[in-house]
């Protein structure tokens, strides 16, 4: 593998070269390209980052990984994207496969960005070593799953700030169209008013999601690695998927505001297991038996995975609730689902994804104290909404409720959101900076999940 170095600067790039001599961009067209290094792709999200190509990114993926089924799955997905009939990608892969893969990446550094999506227990150590060696980090959530990891994350951000590097977690749900519209409407006083304070029993903002261990990704049944079911490796549900939900609470309720950990007060939290039969475990992993490292979680010949969690907390004096549930497999015709509500002084903004919505996320706006809601909605659709989602309409479904109809072109699906959030990260990387609220709010997000986990674990 070539020993190349590439350091992104705001208005200047240094090209790769064995002697590390600076050259002008015009001397080598590839010098202006961002080069990505994928480390230990244990989760399929690592491949989804590459489901699309990006004009500012070099076509070579530098892969560093241990030998095993996870890296084989990553390579198979990249090959699938390269050979698909519609809009095929053209990735090249330069691989280093060996037990010293992490050390090899840091030593050689053929790129400037480490992409990591795998074992959550090891992720923060990869991140810390990456920034110490001068690498930017683009990481799947969660960055941390325990309090020790959180302290390392604080240190990683401190080092990144000193070195002018970026650490960014992949928050795909910010790009889901109904969520974006829910946020947009919540910023319009004539429609929404303002977010109420709420209460412990009736929070002002709620985010709930249901996920499934057995699912299809890129058209094929997903094979989960056995460690995915080990809470010591993957982390419990209350610190995993809830990362997205806590992020959305902050992002929607307090747009572009800096949120400090002192703004968060955990009220109550709980966790409970999903129980898998031996057959279900075999179907989703492809293994003949439950491995020894999971025997600690086996009761009555069934695997108990603490993948479910719920927390209620106050954030800047507003009550919020997030919860995640994992089932084994969704009924036919269904899939992962999401529910959300933001309660305003003039109306409620509700996202539902049930049978009535054909399991498609749908935004409803329900009149509260806004007697002029219909006129306010019409004005918003013609002005603010039309700028971001042209063609969006409303449909009155009851005396107090309106359904927002979003054109199909904006409903791109979860897998496509990886391309959208990656473009956002690449813009930050090119600019050499992120909005001032991103880093402090990332830290507060993980402070919140850690506080919820601690309280849930104590309340056995």
UniProtKB/TrEMBL annotation:
Q: Name one Pfam family in it.
A: Oxidoreduct_C
Putative oxidoreductase C-terminal domain residues are 181-456
- InterPro entries, per database record: NAD(P)-bd_dom_sf, Oxidoreduct_C
Output this protein's name. Answer: Oxidoreductase
Instruction: Report the superkingdom from the record.
Output: Bacteria
